[in-house]
Automatic annotation (TrEMBL):
This is Carboxymuconolactone decarboxylase-like domain-containing protein. Residues 40-122 form the Carboxymuconolactone decarboxylase-like domain. It comes from the Bacteria. InterPro entries: AhpD-like, CMD-like.
C-alpha cells in the first residue's frame, strides 16, 4: 500500500448517490466509504443499513455503541475502534465504562442491560453461550433484533475493513 492510498485497492471516486446519501445525514465520506466505492451498487445498501442502525433503531445509542466496540475488540478492528470508542463516550458511556469494555465481566461499572449487550456481543462475535434469560429480561423482540443486526453488521464491516486493509482515517468521524 503506498503512502497516498486508503486501502490495498486504488482510491475509487465516491458515487454521486453515496455523496448525496452522506450529505443528507450531515456526513463526510470516510475511508470505509471510499474503499467500498468500487462497488456502488453494494455501497448504497451498506450505507442504508448503517444509517438505519444509527438513526432509526429503538435500542439506546449507548448500548449499540457498546455492542459495536466489543465486536470491534473481538474482531481486532482498530479502524472500528478508532471511530466508535469516541462515539461510545459521546453516547453517554463514562470513561471507566469505555476503558473497561474488554474486561467487562470483572468491571463493576456496567448495569444489567449493558452486561446483557456485552454478553450478546461475545455470543455473536466469539461464539460464547447466549444468555436468553438476560436478553429476554432486558430487551423486547424488536430490541433483540436490532442488537443482532448491529452486531452482525459490524462483524461484517470489520471483516471488509480487514480484507481491504482500509487505513484509519486521519480524523475518524464514524
Amino acid at each position: 500500500m503506498d503512502s497516498g492510498s486508503i486501502s490495498r485497492l486504488p482510491v475509487a471516486p465516491l458515487p454521486p448517490s453515496a455523496s448525496r446519501r452522506l450529505a443528507a445525514v450531515g456526513r463526510d465520506p470516510i475511508n470505509l466509504h471510499r474503499a467500498l466505492g468500487h462497488a456502488p451498487a453494494l455501497l448504497a445498501p451498506v450505507l442504508d443499513l448503517i444509517h438505519a442502525l444509527r438513526f432509526d433503531a429503538k435500542v439506546a445509542r449507548s448500548l449499540r455503541e457498546l455492542m459495536i466496540c466489543r465486536i470491534a475488540q473481538l474482531e481486532d478492528s482498530d479502524y472500528e475502534l478508532a471511530h466508535h470508542l469516541p462515539m461510545a463516550a459521546e453516547s453517554g458511556l463514562d470513561e471507566d465504562q469505555v476503558a473497561s469494555i474488554a474486561g467487562w465481566r470483572e468491571a463493576a461499572c456496567f448495569d444489567e442491560r449493558q452486561r446483557a449487550v456485552l454478553g450478546y456481543a461475545e455470543h455473536l462475535g466469539a461464539g460464547a453461550d447466549r444468555d436468553d434469560e438476560a436478553l429476554d429480561k432486558c430487551f423486547d423482540p424488536v430490541e433483540q433484533t436490532e442488537l443482532t443486526v448491529t452486531g452482525a453488521t459490524y462483524i461484517a464491516l470489520a471483516r471488509m475493513l480487514r480484507a481491504l486493509d482500509v487505513r484509519i482515517d486521519a480524523s475518524p468521524l464514524d
